[in-house]
Amino acid sequence: MMMITLHLPEGMSSRIARAAAETGSLPHDFIVQAITEKTERAEAKSGLHALAQQRYEGFLESGESIAWADIRTYLQLRLNGQEAAQPSARKWRR
């Protein structure tokens, strides 16, 4: 376990204490949970960016993609409980 000292802005300590009390936790636990949630969001965002970059590079390499109109039609049919063939990728012209 690592120990970190935080210098909080004026009034933040009392705000944390109130919020922790309202959630039935201790200020320490409240802070740890807040840091955990923020870290998990940052990691998830980073993962999404990496996936988007990977897919974009795949598109640049293959030149193939599925048109948004085809995807939208497919999704609308599926949401309405209808059968729909999955749209296929096609080569894009510049």
Percent of sequence in beta strands = under 5%
| Number of DSSP helical runs | 3
What fraction, in percent, of the residue positions are helical?
Answer: 55-70%
Number of DSSP E strands: 2
The count of domains is 2
Mean pLDDT: 95
Q: Roughly how many Å apart are the termini?
A: 55 Å
Largest sheet strand order: 1-2
Order of helices and strands: HHEHE
Structural class: mainly alpha
Looking at the structure, what is the overall shape?
A: elongated
Largest sheet composition: 2 strands, antiparallel
Low-confidence stretches: none
Gyration radius over CA: 24 Å
Tell me what you see in this structure.
By secondary structure, this protein is mostly helical. The chain has helices spanning 12-23, 27-62, 68-79, and strands spanning 64-65, 90-91. It folds into 2 domains: 16-62; 65-94, no CATH class. The protein is 64% helix and 4% strand. The protein has a two-stranded antiparallel ribbon with strand order 1-2. It is elongated and about 60 Å long. The N and C termini lie far apart (55 Å).
